[in-house]
Specification:
Elements (H helix, E strand, L loop, with lengths): L3 E4 L8 H18 L5 E4 L14 H11 L4 E4 L2 E2 L7 H14 L4 E2 L2 E2 L5 H8 L1
Parallel strand pairs: 1-2, 2-3, 3-5, 4-6
Helix pairs in contact: 2-3
Length: about 120
C-alpha cells in the first residue's frame, strides 16, 4: 500500500509573514521527519484568499524533489486552459521537473474551476 499527502497551503492568517512561515514550517517538518509518504502532491490555484496559496506548484515540487531522494512529487492538477497555462509551456516545465526529480514526477491536468459569479464579472 502507498500513501500520499497533498499540500494546498491553506491558512487563516493570510499576511505575507504567515504565508512565508507556512511554507517554511511545512517543508521543514514534513520533509525533515520523512513521514513515510510515497508521494507529495501539490495543487495549482490562483487568486484565492484562505484556500490553497499555491500558484506556482513547480517551484514547491522542485524544492521537495531536491530535498528528498525517494519521495515522488505530483501535480494535482495543472490548469490547462490557454488563458491560464499554454500546453507547450506546461510540457516544458513538467519535463524539466521530471528531469530534476529523476523520474519521480506524477502529472495531472484539468480545466480548473471558476465560479459562475466570477465568470459573469469577466464578461461585463
Amino acid at each position: 500500500m502507498k500513501f500520499s499527502i497533498i499540500y494546498e497551503a491553506q491558512m487563516v492568517d493570510t499576511s505575507r509573514a504567515n504565508e512565508a512561515q507556512s511554507f517554511r514550517t511545512w517543508s521543514t517538518s514534513r520533509l525533515g521527519r520523512r513521514d513515510g509518504f510515497d508521494c507529495i502532491w501539490s495543487v495549482e490555484h490562483h487568486c484565492l484568499t484562505q484556500y490553497a496559496h499555491l500558484s506556482a506548484p513547480e517551484s514547491f515540487l522542485a524544492f521537495v524533489a531536491g530535498r528528498t531522494t525517494r519521495i515522488h512529487v505530483g501535480h494535482g492538477v495543472v490548469c490547462l486552459p490557454f488563458k491560464m497555462n499554454h500546453p507547450i509551456k506546461v510540457a516544458e516545465r513538467v519535463a524539466t521537473l521530471d528531469l530534476l526529480s529523476r523520474g519521480r514526477l506524477h502529472f495531472g491536468v484539468g480545466k480548473g474551476v471558476r465560479s459562475k459569479n466570477r465568470r459573469l464579472r469577466h464578461q461585463a
